[in-house]
Structure formats: C-alpha cells, structure tokens
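Chain A, query sequence.
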Amino acid sequence: MDVMLPYVTSHFEKNHLAEVERYGDLFVPPPMASKTQEEVFGRDFVESFQGEFGITPGRLAELGMVLLEDAIKQSAIVLVRESASLQQTLSAAGFSQSEVEGVWRSFVLGPRDRWDAVQKPFRDKDWFPWRYRRRLSLMARPFVDLGDGRVAYAPGFCEDSFRHIVMECFHGAFETGYFDTKRMKEFVGAINARRGLDFNKSVGALFSANGWNVRMEVEISALGAPPNEASGDVDVLAWKGNVVCVCECKELLFARNISEVADQLVRFRGLAGDDLDKHLRRVGFIRSHNNNILRLTNLTNPRVVALLITSKIVPMQFTETVGTEVVSADQVTPAFLDLLQ
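Chain A, predicted structure.
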C-alpha cells in the first residue's frame, strides 16, 4: 500500500519528538496522595463499567494485586489452576460471588467449536486476528479456559490487560458495538461526542489566534441548502481576506496496521454515504451558491477552501483521491494559514 511508508514514518517522527519533550517528566515523582476510583474516573464511569463487566475498575486493580501475590507465593510467572480453586482464592480475598461471576463472564477466553466462528453477542470482527480492540483476544480476556476445568493465565499480563480495558473504556477508544449494556454504550458515545466538540473548538481557536473570523457548527440549512442537496453542519467556518475555509474536523484513532489504514481510507473516499460524503456535498453547495455565504461573512464571491482537519496524522494525507485537502491540527500553523490566502 503506497501510503503506508510515509504515513508510519510521519507518525513515528511526530511521536518520537513528543516523547523527547516529555522525557523530563519521567524524573518527576508521582503524587503520594491516593484517590478513590470515583475521584479518578467519576461515578458515572464506575457504575457504567460495573454494569458492563460485573466489577468496578478499582476492584479490578485489586484483583491484579491478588493474582500477583498468589503467583509470588507459588514462584510462578504463568499459572494453570483449577477454575474452582481460583474462584475460591478470589472469594477468600474478599471478592463477592457477583464479582467473580463478572470476571468469568468478561475476562475469560472460553473454548469455541471453531476458532473462526462466534455466536452472539460476539461478531466476526471480535476474532479477526488482524484487528485491534477485539473482544475475543488475550488482551481483552487474559484468562484462558483450557476446556478441562482449568484456566491458564499470567498475572503480570492480567494487570496489563485490566489497565488496557479500563483506560480504553474511559477514553472512549472502543466503538459502542464492543459493549452489551446500554449505559456503557451511552457513556462511550457521550465521551466521543464531547471529545469531538472539544476538538472542533480547538481547531476554531487555531484560526482565531491568527486573525481569522470563525463560526462554529454552522448549519448548512442556514445557507439555504435543501436536505436533498446538502445536510448537517460545517464544524468550523473560517474566513479572512477573500478566503473562506469549510472545515470538517475529525478526532480519529491512530490506524495501527494495514487493516486499520485500509479501513480509514475506505471510510474517507468521498463516496456516497461514507464519512466524507456530507462534507464534500456541503462544500459543493457553498461553492455553487457563493452568494449565500454573504449573509455570514459579508464576502462577495470568495474563494472556498475545503479542509479535512484531523487530530493526528492520518493515511488520507498521503493519497490524492479524497477530494479535499487533509491536514492534522498541528499542521494548521500561521505559515499554513498564510498560504491559504
């Protein structure tokens, strides 16, 4: 895939430089005061997580310590235990029956008749080995049910898994289809919506700081567009001189392999119904009805620039087939904005 080398190289360079800037933080001791899980995550997340997984984030962290201490006593890195024996160990450590059941339901990778077939509530993408964030992976389910009444697990890896699950849920990195409960789906949806809105505001601030006029969340209907021709809103409408920028802002996850790169490229081709289609339709309407922009900008016959502004470097920046200029937010510099005029 032609975009892979420049995409991965650019992303690595950016991350490497960011890590260099943060290097000094490694020598700053962390605060000693401890906080409750509600103080760290908020009650809404704690309750949503418990409803989904049957155990709270705080108790999951305690589970990791129990497993680690048990492994130290046995001088083992990887353990194979009778399921009943492990459950008794957890009960003796103070975990309730509902918590133990939640662990078994949510974090045990059970045997299947076929490794490449699943039953509801799982989907095929949950077992695809070329995908990340799969529900049927060792990272998501670090206890392996051997099918004979025993489970195998590595306590150190369990701790990594628990931390990964909690933080990915908290930051909204999983798609809502990953979850079964309505409350967890709503929490993740709200996190992503808020993050998207915050990103839109940050993009608007980049333009404002450089002397551009900015309007946020401009309904295309306010510019006279009928629904069959263009719909939705312009995330950021910015103008200066005789230039109007129509900005679609996307807070996207890093595409970590060829499959995820291909997925983003497919989603942002500018074809009917994809994630770029509405943006291009809005741009097309504004360009073909230039006088309508006068009511917002007081500009007559301005030059309209279409921009897809992303939260990080994305594969679409390295292809010329998307129908709009693609830049990451950190590339929206004074020099870049000057070139638009």
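The chain has a mean pLDDT of 90. The two ends are 34 Å apart (CA to CA).
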